[in-house]
Sequence to fold (150 residues):
Amino acid sequence: MTDSPPDLSIQDLLPHRGRMLLIDEIVHIEGDRAVAAAYVTEQWPLLSENIASPLMLIELVAQASGLSNGLHLIKERGKEADKKGWVVGVKRASFYTEGLSLGERIVVETNNRFKFDDFVEIEGFAQIGERKVGEVTLQVMKAGMEQERE
Fold:
Protein backbone atom coordinates (compact mmCIF):
# COMPACT_ATOMS: atom_id res chain seq x y z
CA MET A 1 0.00 0.00 0.00
CA THR A 2 1.20 3.51 -0.77
CA ASP A 3 1.23 6.26 1.86
CA SER A 4 1.12 8.93 -0.86
CA PRO A 5 -2.23 10.67 -1.22
CA PRO A 6 -3.52 10.39 -4.79
CA ASP A 7 -3.44 14.17 -5.30
CA LEU A 8 0.38 14.39 -4.90
CA SER A 9 2.62 14.27 -7.94
CA ILE A 10 6.34 13.61 -8.30
CA GLN A 11 6.83 17.39 -8.61
CA ASP A 12 5.06 17.87 -5.25
CA LEU A 13 7.57 15.55 -3.57
CA LEU A 14 10.82 16.51 -5.34
CA PRO A 15 12.44 19.90 -6.03
CA HIS A 16 13.90 18.69 -9.36
CA ARG A 17 12.63 20.12 -12.65
CA GLY A 18 13.48 19.94 -16.33
CA ARG A 19 16.08 17.44 -17.44
CA MET A 20 17.23 16.88 -13.85
CA LEU A 21 13.91 15.29 -12.89
CA LEU A 22 14.68 11.66 -13.70
CA ILE A 23 11.91 9.79 -11.87
CA ASP A 24 8.97 9.00 -14.16
CA GLU A 25 6.79 6.88 -11.91
CA ILE A 26 6.08 6.34 -8.22
CA VAL A 27 5.67 2.60 -7.82
CA HIS A 28 5.30 2.48 -4.03
CA ILE A 29 5.87 4.62 -0.96
CA GLU A 30 5.47 3.25 2.54
CA GLY A 31 7.11 4.80 5.57
CA ASP A 32 10.82 5.28 4.89
CA ARG A 33 10.78 3.01 1.82
CA ALA A 34 10.20 4.15 -1.76
CA VAL A 35 10.15 2.33 -5.08
CA ALA A 36 10.27 4.39 -8.26
CA ALA A 37 10.88 3.88 -11.96
CA ALA A 38 12.73 5.92 -14.55
CA TYR A 39 13.23 5.56 -18.28
CA VAL A 40 16.56 6.52 -19.84
CA THR A 41 15.79 9.33 -22.30
CA GLU A 42 17.74 11.54 -24.67
CA GLN A 43 17.33 14.38 -22.15
CA TRP A 44 19.39 12.65 -19.45
CA PRO A 45 22.72 14.15 -18.38
CA LEU A 46 25.78 11.95 -18.93
CA LEU A 47 24.24 10.32 -22.04
CA SER A 48 26.54 9.57 -24.94
CA GLU A 49 25.77 7.48 -28.02
CA ASN A 50 22.45 6.37 -26.45
CA ILE A 51 24.16 5.07 -23.29
CA ALA A 52 23.96 6.85 -19.92
CA SER A 53 26.74 6.56 -17.39
CA PRO A 54 25.99 4.25 -14.45
CA LEU A 55 26.82 7.27 -12.26
CA MET A 56 23.22 8.30 -12.96
CA LEU A 57 22.16 5.51 -10.57
CA ILE A 58 23.41 7.67 -7.69
CA GLU A 59 21.01 10.43 -8.68
CA LEU A 60 18.18 7.95 -9.20
CA VAL A 61 18.64 6.61 -5.66
CA ALA A 62 18.74 10.17 -4.31
CA GLN A 63 15.54 11.12 -6.14
CA ALA A 64 13.70 7.91 -5.22
CA SER A 65 14.54 8.47 -1.55
CA GLY A 66 13.38 12.05 -1.97
CA LEU A 67 9.89 10.72 -2.66
CA SER A 68 9.45 9.17 0.80
CA ASN A 69 11.38 11.95 2.53
CA GLY A 70 9.39 14.59 0.61
CA LEU A 71 6.17 12.92 1.70
CA HIS A 72 7.35 13.03 5.34
CA LEU A 73 8.03 16.76 4.94
CA ILE A 74 4.58 17.43 3.46
CA LYS A 75 2.93 15.47 6.27
CA GLU A 76 4.87 17.52 8.86
CA ARG A 77 4.67 20.97 7.25
CA GLY A 78 2.04 20.89 4.51
CA LYS A 79 2.10 20.76 0.73
CA GLU A 80 3.50 24.28 0.41
CA ALA A 81 6.53 23.52 2.62
CA ASP A 82 9.86 24.80 1.34
CA LYS A 83 11.44 22.02 -0.74
CA LYS A 84 15.10 22.92 -0.39
CA GLY A 85 17.46 20.25 -1.55
CA TRP A 86 19.66 17.95 0.45
CA VAL A 87 23.41 18.02 0.97
CA VAL A 88 24.38 14.55 -0.24
CA GLY A 89 27.48 12.45 0.28
CA VAL A 90 28.07 9.12 -1.40
CA LYS A 91 29.20 6.62 1.23
CA ARG A 92 29.34 3.69 -1.17
CA ALA A 93 28.39 2.97 -4.77
CA SER A 94 28.76 -0.26 -6.72
CA PHE A 95 27.75 -0.55 -10.37
CA TYR A 96 27.13 -3.84 -12.16
CA THR A 97 26.71 -2.45 -15.65
CA GLU A 98 28.84 -0.52 -18.13
CA GLY A 99 25.96 1.79 -19.00
CA LEU A 100 22.22 2.37 -19.14
CA SER A 101 20.72 2.07 -22.61
CA LEU A 102 18.28 4.58 -24.05
CA GLY A 103 14.71 3.48 -23.34
CA GLU A 104 15.54 1.09 -20.49
CA ARG A 105 13.24 1.11 -17.47
CA ILE A 106 15.19 1.27 -14.22
CA VAL A 107 13.43 0.42 -10.97
CA VAL A 108 14.99 1.90 -7.86
CA GLU A 109 14.20 0.89 -4.29
CA THR A 110 15.38 2.96 -1.34
CA ASN A 111 15.12 2.76 2.41
CA ASN A 112 16.17 5.16 5.15
CA ARG A 113 18.50 2.97 7.21
CA PHE A 114 19.31 5.50 9.90
CA LYS A 115 17.94 8.89 11.00
CA PHE A 116 19.33 11.27 13.57
CA ASP A 117 17.97 14.83 13.68
CA ASP A 118 18.45 16.14 10.13
CA PHE A 119 20.90 13.41 9.07
CA VAL A 120 19.71 10.36 7.13
CA GLU A 121 21.61 7.39 5.75
CA ILE A 122 19.87 5.91 2.71
CA GLU A 123 20.40 2.52 1.16
CA GLY A 124 19.24 1.96 -2.39
CA PHE A 125 19.53 -0.45 -5.26
CA ALA A 126 18.58 -0.31 -8.91
CA GLN A 127 17.58 -3.00 -11.31
CA ILE A 128 16.64 -3.41 -14.94
CA GLY A 129 14.20 -6.28 -15.21
CA GLU A 130 15.50 -8.93 -12.84
CA ARG A 131 19.14 -7.78 -13.14
CA LYS A 132 20.61 -5.68 -10.32
CA VAL A 133 22.62 -2.85 -11.90
CA GLY A 134 23.72 -0.89 -8.85
CA GLU A 135 23.77 -0.42 -5.09
CA VAL A 136 24.23 2.98 -3.46
CA THR A 137 24.49 4.22 0.13
CA LEU A 138 23.98 7.94 0.61
CA GLN A 139 24.42 10.15 3.64
CA VAL A 140 22.24 13.24 3.46
CA MET A 141 21.39 16.31 5.47
CA LYS A 142 18.49 18.61 4.73
CA ALA A 143 19.80 21.95 3.46
CA GLY A 144 18.81 24.99 5.50
CA MET A 145 17.37 23.07 8.46
CA GLU A 146 19.46 25.03 10.98
CA GLN A 147 17.89 28.27 9.69
CA GLU A 148 14.35 26.84 9.99
CA ARG A 149 14.93 26.10 13.71
CA GLU A 150 15.84 29.69 14.59
About this structure: The first strand starts at residue 25 and ends at 30.
